[in-house]
Design goal:
The complex is a heterodimer of chains A (about 80) and B (about 100). Chain A has four helices and no strands. By secondary structure, chain A is mostly helical. Classes of the chains: A mainly alpha (about 80), B mainly alpha (about 100).
């Protein structure tokens, strides 16, 4: 296993604490954990792209980064309105 | 070169895992928000490792684009989340009387 794939597998473990916060804590706590999980997922996609030698995988990371910005802002806006 | 790449990868993994543990361990959303900023540093280390490994390539360009987007959007999303947390906690975005008194001390 290349170091890139090993690092991506290790980073996937970081999604567990984020998932726990999303599942057990308040909605705003979950929003923060969701942002952390998004950044982790972007890192994992970049690592997988290099690990498998497929530059197109990095497009997913780039798109996820863009979508997580809008998603985070929309969630925050709705949470302000007591959703 | 390989040592530098492996070191940057190890730094990225350690930092990002520690940040997620910080998100888990913090008490309030405001405390949790502080752990998002070091995640950006991990992204930068990853982009640097990719640059050392691949040189100037489409993958490294995308990695640096991700970094730039993360740096621009990080404070904006953090502010929006903190504002949402405060509005939910105090039913508004106003300064409390207790906070005014505390600021005058």
């Amino acid at each position: 296993m290349s170091p890139w794939l090993a690092a991506s597998v290790a980073l996937l473990l970081g999604l567990l604490p984020c998932g726990w916060v999303i599942y057990r804590r308040t909605a705003v706590d979950g929003l923060v954990a969701l942002q952390a999980a998004s950044l982790l997922a972007v890192s994992v996609l970049l690592l997988l792209s290099q690990g498998y030698g497929q530059p197109s995988f990095a497009d997913l990371g780039l798109i996820l980064m863009v979508l997580s910005i809008g998603g985070g802002l929309v969630y925050a806006r709705f949470l302000e309105r007591w959703v | 070169m390989s040592i530098a790449i492996d070191s940057l990868l190890a730094f990225t993994v350690a930092l990002e895992l520690l940040c997620t543990l910080g998100v888990l361990a913090a008490d309030t959303p405001f405390d949790r928000l502080h752990y998002l900023a070091p995640l950006l540093l991990g992204l930068f280390a990853l982009a640097m490792a990719l640059t050392l490994a691949k040189g100037f390539s489409p993958l490294t360009l995308k990695a640096w684009a991700v970094c730039v987007l993360a740096v621009i959007s990080g404070p904006i999303v953090a502010h929006a989340a903190a504002r949402a947390a405060r509005v939910r906690q105090f039913a508004g975005w106003h300064v409390l009387e207790s906070e005014k008194a505390e600021a005058q001390l």
